[in-house]
Amino acid sequence: MPKLQQDIHNETLLVFNCHEAWVYQLCALGCSLDIIVGLRGQYSRSWDLHMRPLPPNSRLISLPEALDSPKRYYCIIAHNMTDLLEVKSRPEPRLVVLHSTLEGRVIEEGSSVTPQEMREVLSKYLELVGGHAVAGTILKAQSWRFSDDIVVVGVDPSDYRPYSGQLACGLRICNFIESRKKILLWDFHARAFAGIPVRLVGHNPNMPGVTASESWDHLKALMQAHRFHIHTADLQLEDGFNMATIEAMAAGMPVLGNCHPSSPIQHGVSGFLSNDPDELRKYARILLEDRELAAKMGREARKTAMERFPMGRFRESFLMSIETARRKHESCKVNPSDIRVSPESPRPDAHQVLKP
């Protein structure tokens, strides 16, 4: 059995903060976490308590503190090429988690770099330094051409309150919608739910009246009370579910959205799916008028979440990913600090990596 699974409580992971809900999942590993915050380009300079409480056995540190730390980390967990380059002076194994499709990321960031260039540079860099890539879903693995290791998020239904659906209103949880409208099929969302009461929750500074939840407890209360959850996504750019969708299912909410091959929702059983906005609006009205039907469908959604996204599976799979990163690191003959990077940018991204 890998050492991490036996002595996990004695080890510490160095983790870049990105998506608090995802990072919080690492509690399941049972180890200590040093979480790097205060990075340029992020909307929050620290851990966002609106999303999740600080994980147990964790501490927040700055990037300079991480680079100077005398601690020997069991593994470094990054979320993009920039993160990998920031810690190139650290000697530990490293792993990068691919949270989005490559094409979706290019659209969201408005990057001038082609997907092929980004894909090739990340692949070359990981090969040089003995790094390892983990994709969050099959679609993201196919997009980046890293299909060896796929670890889907997990959820613990016991974290959520019993569903009531007392509010005849839909709920959609999403950050930065303005930069992700194409990815989220936002025009379709707007047509499908025109005239339907829907509460949007998340960090969306350009959308008046839309705010983030006050805390994780508040977010759970919202999922408990609202009638259904919404997720729409472009088939090539995003999956038919995201972490908010899985959480809503675990909370017992039925889900409405467009037809998507990776959607965990069974039409007419755990929610409703349609590519016709008028038809989807009809289904929304049915659930608004029939609270008992919504609760019945929500129970099926919760059952699906327990079967398809168990936290135990996430834990075991991610532990194996960490061990893979450690094995690759041991066989690597190139020191990451020897990789030269373009000096023009203090936080360079993938296209600025030069030859070793």
Main attributes of the structure:
356 residues; alpha/beta; Rossmann fold; 2 domains; six-stranded parallel sheet; five-stranded parallel sheet; 13 helices; 36% helix; 14% strand; globular; disordered N terminus; disordered C terminus
Structure description:
The chain is α/β, with parallel strands linked by helices. Strand 7, helix 8 (186-192) and strand 8 (198-201) form a beta-alpha-beta unit. Residues 1-6 and 341-356 have low confidence and may be disordered. 36% of the residues lie in helices and 14% in strands. The chain has a 6-stranded parallel beta sheet. It contains 13 helices and 11 strands. The chain folds into 2 domains: 3-154 and 311-352, Rossmann fold, CATH 3.40.50; 157-308, Rossmann fold (3-Layer(aba) Sandwich), CATH 3.40.50. Helix 8 (186-192) crosses helix 11 (277-289) and helix 10 (243-250) crosses helix 12.
CATH topology title of the largest domain: Rossmann fold
CATH architecture of the largest domain: 3-Layer(aba) Sandwich
Q: How many strand segments?
A: 11
Q: CA-to-CA gap between the ends? A: 35 Å
**What is the gyration radius calculated from CA atoms?**
21 Å
SSE string, helices as H and strands as E: HEHEEHEHEHHEHEHEHEHEEHHH
- Form type: globular
Helicity, in percent? Answer: 25-40%
> Going across the major beta sheet, what is the strand order?
3-2-1-4-5-6
| Unreliable residue runs | 1-6, 341-356
The pLDDT mean sits at 90
* DSSP helical segment count: 13
Main sheet, how many strands, which sense, barrel? 6 strands, parallel
Structural class based on helices, strands and sheet pairing: alpha/beta
Give the class-level CATH name of the largest domain: Alpha Beta
Please indicate the count of domains. 2
Residue share in β-strands:
5-15%
